[in-house]
Amino acid sequence: MTFGDFIKAKREEKMMSQRSFAALLGLSPVYVSYFESGKRNPPKRELLLKISEVLHLDSRDTDTMLYLAAQQKYHEDTPDDIIGYVCSNDYAKNALRVAKECRITDEDWDFFTNYIYNKYY
Q1: How many structural domains is the chain composed of?
Q2: Could you tell me the mean pLDDT of each successive run of 10 residues in the chain, 121 residues long?
């Protein structure tokens, strides 16, 4: 299932037209049509969270939506196994957020991966 398929299915479950869904999001129906059909990449996280609110998604469906969006956006650059692992592991997400906030260097990543490798192999 793609991000667009998922959004369309959830929207239709709620018996919403594209036009009414777009209005609730403050978007044009054309833009909604484009990301539902895969002609455009999924929107940024802020809008994804608004979509979750408008569709009244539970946490599991929200995680699925975010996973599918990330998979579509970054599929060319990031292997599926990495996307799947990070999206399904809260510790990995938090570790990456901390690493980003602390602006860790390549040397820090090298130290970290060597530590993990030496600990488990």
Answers
A1: 1
A2: 95 97 96 92 93 96 91 69 84 91 92 91 87
